[in-house]
Amino acid sequence: MNLIPVGVLGTGKYVPERILTNQELETMVETNDEWIVSRTGIRERRIAAEGQATSDLCFEASQVALSNAGITADQLDLIIVATITPDMSFPSTACILQEKLGAKKAAAFDLSAACSGFVYGLANAANFIATGTYKYALVIGADCLSKITDYTDRNTCILFGDGAGAVVIGEVPEERGFKSFELGADGTGGPLLKIEGGGSRNPASQNSLDQRLHYIYMAGAEVFKFAVRIMGNAADEALRKAGWEKTDIDLLVPHQANMRIIQSSLNRLELSEDKCMINLDKYGNMSAASIPVALAEASEQGRLNEGDRLILVGFGGGLTWGATALVW
Ligand code: UT7
After folding, report:
1. Final residue of a domain: which of 174, 197, 231?
2. pLDDT over 90 for what percent of the chain?
3. Ligand 1: which atom is nearest the Cα of residue 285?
4. From the CB of 299, is ligand 1 less than 6 Å away?
5. Which InterPro entries does this chain map to (predicted)?
6. The dihedral of CA 294, 300, 302, 305: what is its sign?
7. Of 255, 258, 276, 279, catalytic
8. Which of 19, 39, 40, 84 is buried most deeply by CB count within 10 Å?
9. How many domains does the chain have?
10. Are both 232 and 148 inside the same structural domain?
């Protein structure tokens, strides 16, 4: 079967206006700017307004991506929203977005792979296009982590922010586009990063509320160790499958969880910081939105030239990981 080459036709991002600074967090929990910056690299993050939900963020980012791709919503065949903070259990955020955009002919579904969700979404959508099933797909990574963050827990509340990043993907010339995907999961690490409440195991109840089961729980140090190992491994695998060397990389677009994790990936890939998109100082960890927002900003800043070789790589709850080698 001849596969159609698939790549990114347009990018877009949206972050809420409200900024939550480290200084403000100092008034909320026992922490300080120096600790947060030195341990994570984060200085501020964006927080969705009351009543603003994930699909609202998706809508804004999607409009920009569609416009940059030069297509209209009614041309979309598929919408995938990678998120762990859907508007509601169902209908999916992708279906809510489909209605908002007026993408009448698009199939739509959500994908749950936490911070790796965007790369998982790209891999799914790319296969539909490569096989000729669909022509245009909209893939979005979006999360409103502020809605599930416990602002009395200093271990987690300093890390997270809200945002959405979107790409339209479709056919590109043979030499461009996605050259490999590396996806993986290790369910044994599931308990390290989770929200226990609100699902079929622990439905919402007074008890689940009292136990604060509707907030993110994270064993930070263990997730950190996993991240350092897996970011390098996943990027290496994406390189190997694409037939690239480390020296071929023009830009690394990593998940923005912690500057020390990004630094370890750069060391492993023998890359200097100028070959890496870093924006976690402004946004913190936006889960599935981190990679596509960084990609959209790289495009806005003119850092992406035709023919550039990119590695997108992320890790997250599940535990999961995902990487792709992409020629711009
Ligand atoms: O998207 C994927 C999701 N998550 C991640 O990627 C997170 C991965 N993990 C991390 O980024 C890091 O583990 C953290 C930033 C969460 C924590 O950094 P750490 O260097 O691993 O610190 P730690 O958890 O080992 O804690 C060190 C100390 C502890 O005090 P003691 O027990 O040594 O007295 C913590 O209680 O720092 C304390 N601490 C804080 N101090 C000030 C923890 N949070 C804070 C805080 N402010 N916000």
Report:
1. 174
2. 99
3. 1
4. no
5. ACP_syn_III_C, ACP_syn_III_N, FabH, Thiolase-like
6. positive
7. 255
8. 84
9. 2
10. no
